[in-house]
């Protein structure tokens, strides 16, 4: 699956549509099933257009389109605008932790913010959180490190374990 996260509701919509057109319930779409799906959306592709689209989506070349391939094909269109919106919201959350506005979250800022949210951390928990997030080893959490940990946390909460690099 792509590294880009798709909101669960959008993923569920794609999965429901996919399952509706997977007539033989084998977990993949044939040329005919993909054509039926496209026509249900009001599109009228020619046979050549369907072949071209099908071959572009079938990334593993097995002659069928699986759900993950369909999602990957649709991701660029579905996530660009949403991703910009989510980055803006995430930056607001980051800034609420970055109390002095210097672009990083220190150990003290993390401790104070978590305590104010009713989630006081032990020294050990603070150390573990900083170590998990601080990929460059500078002892603080930058926005990119914060965003990476938040994405991992969100993915895991939806049942998609994501290993951190």
Alpha-beta content class: mainly alpha
Strand order of the largest sheet: 1-2
CATH top level of the largest domain is Mainly Alpha
The domain count comes to: 2
Order of helices and strands: HEHHEHEHHEH
CATH topology of the largest domain: Recoverin, domain 1
Annotated CATH homologous superfamily of the largest domain = EF-hand
- Portion of residues in beta strands equals under 5%
Q: Considering DSSP H and I runs of 4 or more, what fraction of the residues is helical?
A: 55-70%
Q: Which residue ranges are poorly predicted, with pLDDT under 50 across at least 5 consecutive positions?
A: 77-81, 157-165
The count of strands amounts to 4
- Write down the overall mean pLDDT: 80
What does this structure look like?
With 165 residues, this protein is mostly helical. It has 2 domains: 8-77, EF-hand (Recoverin, domain 1); 98-157, EF-hand (Recoverin, domain 1), CATH 1.10.238.10. Helix content is 62%, strand content 5%. The chain has 7 helices and 4 strands, in the order αβααβαβααβα. Strands 1-2 form a two-stranded antiparallel sheet. A two-stranded antiparallel sheet has the order 3-4. α1 (8-21) runs antiparallel to α4 (67-97). It is elongated, with a radius of gyration of 21 Å. The two termini are 16 Å apart. Mean pLDDT is 80; it is low at 77-81 and 157-165.
